[in-house]
């Protein structure tokens, strides 16, 4: 039941200066919403332990009415499950679009949400797209008809574009997890599940492609329970199978629902359940009740008393369990055959949370770092807090997608960038409908909008200046693959303009210039990710580029503690330089609080290193981490503790201490037994059963560790952990051993140390590539070799995919 109780929230309105703590906070990763916080909000008043008098905000009747009929949802799933096809139907049935166009359709128009040319050409979603629609639904609880406003973000399934899913789920209140009725839970389903858990996003599941031969929703539900470990039960059973799919039986309202008309526009509901499915439907309704009883006390008690819950009780329990992240109701249908999409939309309205039910917190940066987070309340009159979650360079400048958490944004209003304190006017406010936009005058809390002309990074918070609240940003995975890129012919400003734009829009896309080779290196989540950007440079910026071979993003780390005692001294001619640093380095685990796995700690006592030189020491340490001396890759998993040192009254300077720290780190590094780490990928292969042994053989020959396998009627799925460096050429190989019928996908899992002999090879190649060594040893012509030096390790004929 949608909450009607007035929630009392407290927030701090007192204007405070922007704090210098802001920068320190911007990387922190508190859970942005927790069920525990929600419970606390409703019952207790936050302690005012910091001496402020917090005003109270109430949700007005108007707020409640609006929020009750507002849903913000994402559509997420494994590649090709039919997310965009489903969204196209949703837009069509809600009247947002006049006609249905298919992904890779014969009319060559393409689906609304895949608006980029490249998406339409390739038939895949690359960028998430936002839209909104209105849907009139009949409540299964009260039977009343209500109009719902739904904001939808269609996300890509390919793991190379995973940041798009990450940022959508960061700001959405609920999601539809789409699954293929034949393939079931696949590798990216697990990734998406992880992302939903990270941001506590309740989900309903939709088993799509019920028209496909071999469709088996019951096996898929079983996989949701066992592989994703979330209690699940169907709230519908299909009427007819595969190409005979006619509709579904709604197990909650006990009605048969059919789609009629050419595009399934007309929904026909009947109290008569077809005789062929009635017994099965009863069995599945029982299963639904039993699953719910596991997670919901009210249903549990009714079952113990041998009582049958009525529709109202059942729908309320499904909603409670779903919103409470304890359960996922499963819907079925076929998007492409226009079957059972409308009942799914009713499910979105009935079972997914309102913006008021998604507990969201911010941190007040005027308070201590460990001060309790401040709950945000979606009241229109509360001070504005909005999060910029996605940027796009459009025809009219930067377009910033925002989720408004509390307060209201009005066109022409001044808003404040929480990190920089900069004040900006909102020149234009729009709601997005894929690549089209609708101008609006104002937008309330719990809504999604886009703003022009605001300069910021994705993940930045905006306020109205009366608070110093800041929200945590999203999780950003590390790139796993890099390649060198060079414009053909003369470099034009468009080259760096394009790279800067892509870097700003996509935090998983990195660009740097290699200090030694002077090459521009781009890094990302996979070859497709980088390939798309290279293609976009050509199409959107008219910059044709040549690229080097893709390189695995190796890293380095240390394996033991080692002490340093290092003096940097330069006293011949000119101004002298003097700095002594004493301390140790040690391995460090990833710290989920700071989101860091490297740290600098200063415990110097008695001013042996004057405090003004400590930041220079820290800077020197981070500079040294950029390039490990084994292979030239970034060093991770390392804490440095600075314990002591010595300064000279005349010759010490920031520069001297920075140099001292770089020297000390280089010196101590080999004593800390460094190793090279390589990305390990989770690889999933699906192929016809007869190729099973050939596929497993090829994964074994690449030193893969099989983690899961499943054989179905005529196809099988195998999942294995394989080093990315061993995946080069796998695509061709798989095609060869499966007569082109096998498919694979892979995603980053972790970094692990490379084998000792590989480490030796990489280190040797790196050593030879260094300018000094090159002069003395290397006979290869690296000067003219466009790819980064470590590429000479790999067979140049290999392609990674
Ligand atoms: N048989 C069948 N095919 C479907 C169904 N829904 C979608 N498809 C097909 O599946 C393919 C992929 O559909 P999309 O909608 O692009 O899938 P997606 O999940 O958006 O894909 P990405 O965004 O690239 O991950 C297309 O060829 C669709 O026509 C369905 O219900 N049944
Ligand atoms: Mg898509």
TrEMBL record:
Please tell me where GTP binds in this chain: 77-84, 154-158, 208-211
Which is a Pfam family this sequence falls into?
EFG_C
- Main location class: mitochondrion
Keywords tagged on the record = Elongation factor, GTP-binding, Mitochondrion, Nucleotide-binding, Protein biosynthesis
Gene Ontology cellular-component terms for this entry are: mitochondrion
Q: Which residues form the Tr-type G domain?
A: 68-356
Q: Which family does it belong to?
A: Belongs to the TRAFAC class translation factor GTPase superfamily. Classic translation factor GTPase family. EF-G/EF-2 subfamily. Belongs to the GTP-binding elongation factor family. EF-G/EF-2 subfamily.
Q: What the protein does?
A: Catalyzes the GTP-dependent ribosomal translocation step during translation elongation. During this step, the ribosome changes from the pre-translocational (PRE) to the post-translocational (POST) state as the newly formed A-site-bound peptidyl-tRNA and P-site-bound deacylated tRNA move to the P and E sites, respectively. Catalyzes the coordinated movement of the two tRNA molecules, the mRNA and conformational changes in the ribosome. Mitochondrial GTPase that catalyzes the GTP-dependent ribosomal translocation step during translation elongation. During this step, the ribosome changes from the pre-translocational (PRE) to the post-translocational (POST) state as the newly formed A-site-bound peptidyl-tRNA and P-site-bound deacylated tRNA move to the P and E sites, respectively. Catalyzes the coordinated movement of the two tRNA molecules, the mRNA and conformational changes in the ribosome.
Name of the protein described by the UniProt record: Elongation factor G, mitochondrial
Instruction: Provide the organism lineage as a comma list.
Output: Eukaryota, Fungi, Dikarya, Basidiomycota, Agaricomycotina
